[in-house]
Every structure is written in structure tokens, then in C-alpha cells.
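Thread title: Can someone regenerate the structure for this chain?

I was given the following input by a collaborator and told the matching C-alpha cells would be attached. They weren't. Posting the sequence so someone can regenerate them.
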Amino acid sequence: MAYVVAGSVLGLSWLGEAPAVQADSCAAGDYICQSLQQAKQQQNQNQAALDKLKATINDLATQVNLLATTLHSLEAQLNSKQNEIAATNGRIAEIQRQIRFTNADIDRRTADLNVRQERLNERVRTMDKQGHVRYLELVVTAANFNQLVDRVLSTQQVVVADRKLLDTLNSDKADVLALEKDEQAKQGQETELLSLQQTQRDELQATTDQQSQALAIQQALEAQYANQIAQATAQQAQVDQQVKDLQAAYDAEARGGGGGTGKFLWPQVSHYMSQGFGPSDLLLEPPYGNYAHFHTGIDIAGPYGTPIWASDTGVVNEYSTGYGYGNYIVIVHGNGWSTLYGHMSGFNVPDHTLVAKGQTIGFEGSTGWSTGPHLHFEIRFNNVPQDPCTYLGC
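Best answer:
Regenerated them for you:
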């Protein structure tokens, strides 16, 4: 079987990295906004990939390759989103821990402030009632000047201590207010992180849904692939039987016309070989021998409608199918030699007629399982596919 798949399609350029977020989309340093926009862009890109798989790509082998890449990308994104959620959970837990410590510190400081404030209030009330009397008593009852000075100094030290206590209380109150503001900021961060966490979970669910959708497509493709590979295998067996029967029927006629020399002509004007002979990684190539996928000829790409020539003299046998080789010709040359020409757009000679080497037998096309105009060309000896390059000098 033969397939032409453009490298640009298999290159998956449409499944690249998400484009960078525009500078005016998010505020500078707003990593949460940037993260959400990048995630949204990636999910849009995933959906576009899945839509393209379903709507615009018809070649099964290409679909399978694209889908495998998409599933790999989705798996990586799921792991990334799960890691993001775990990181966000860790940050939320840390913020909540800080809030608990801050609340405990505020409660402790507030209780201490209340006790000291009450003591200060009590002292102020006492001084307000007795302060001037007490000061006068100190002066009048002093036994001498030195005692008077000592009492005045002691009273001043008490006043200084009271002022210091008041200053300390004011400073501690300011600290408590600062802690309360810090707690409010942390609570704001917690709210923002919880919102981010929910968004990340929504994104994870969306990506999981996309993965489920991709897996469903994969199952459908696998069923389609199994059906088509069965058709390809059946056609390969059919062709083998056709060649065997044709050689028995036309070998003598072909040899009589001068065919069966083992020397072959390049079958068209184009010499661009898009796929060679041998083991293949294309999924729809049928199995051959010990190989799961084997290309039994060479593919020669050229413009649609390019004339196809008989590679050697022989008897033409024409077949038309809607799968595999599409429209194809088998020419029996004699002495066990035969050639096959696949994916032709049409025939140019009557069926079961003897044609000369180099005669136009049909035209290049893309019938059957083909993604672009090309000729699938086989050389067989005793019905065993040979590498055409051995005889054509590719």
C-alpha cells in the first residue's frame, strides 16, 4: 500500500506552545492573571486540536499520529495543573498558618494591653483625686531640705515612669493595629488564592474532559484502523492471487511480445521518490513476512495527471477499487516478472492487451488510500515484491 503524508502535517506546528500573554492583558507582576490567561489559551489550543482531528483531517495514519501527540500534551498538562493546585494548596495552608499565629499574637498583646491600660487608668484616677494633696503633703511633712529633695525626685521618677508606661502602651497599640492590618491583607491573599484554586480545578476538569474526548476519538480510530488494516491485508492477499493467476494466463503471451527481460524503465517523468521500499512506520501499510508494516514498492510523487509508462513489455490487467491501491494496473512481463501501478487517476489502454515498454498505460492520481498525487510502483519476481531501486537505480 502507499501513502503520501506531508511532513508539515506530521510536524504538528498547530500544536505548539501557547502564545505569550500580551503586555496589556495583565498588570505587571500579576502572576495570577498571567497564569489564568496562559491556561485559557492552552485549553483553547487543545480544543482546536481536537476539532481539527475530527473535522479537517481525513487520513487515518495522520490522525493517529496527531492524536498520540495530543494525548501526550494533555497528559503533561494534567500533571502540570495538578502540581499547580498542590502548590496553591501549600500557599493557602501557609497563609492560614500565618493568620492563626497573627490572631494568637493579637489576642495575647490585646489582653496584655487591657491589663496595663486598666492599671494606668486606675493610677490616673487616683492621681486625679489625690495628686495635688499628696504633693503638698510631701513638702509640708519633710523633716529637712534633703528629705524634701529626695521626695520631690522620687515623685518625678514616678511621673517619668508613668509617662514611659503610657508611651509603651501607645506603641503596643500601634503594633496591634499593624498586626490587624497584616491579618486583613493575609485574609485578602487567602481569598484570592482560594479563587485561583477553584479556577485551577475548573481548568483541570476541562483538560480532563478534553482528554476523555481524545481517548474516545482514539478508540474510534483504533476501530477504524483495525477495519482498514484488515482491508489492506485482504487486498494484498487478493493482489497476490491475481498476480499468480495472471502469470499463469499471460506469461507466454508476454514473453512472446518481448517482455520478461528483467530490465525495467523508470515509469514516469518525475523521479521524486516520496517513500522507499521496505519496513514502514505508516500504520496502514499491511503486514508482510515478519514485519508489522511493509511497503512493497516505491512511491513516486508528481503532478496530477502525469502519464504513467509501462516499465517493460507485457499484458495489461486493470482493476478499480475504492480503497488501498485505488485504480491500479498489473502488467505480466513473462519469465515470472510483473509490475504493479497504483493510485492512478485513469487508464489509457484496453484491458488484457499487450503493451510496449515505455507506452503510456494511464495517468497519475490519488485514488484509494492516498493523501496526494503519486504513483505506487512495484516490481515482482515469481510474485515476491522486489526493491525497484535495485533495477531502476533510484
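Helices lie at 7-10, 31-55, 60-140, 145-256, 388-392.
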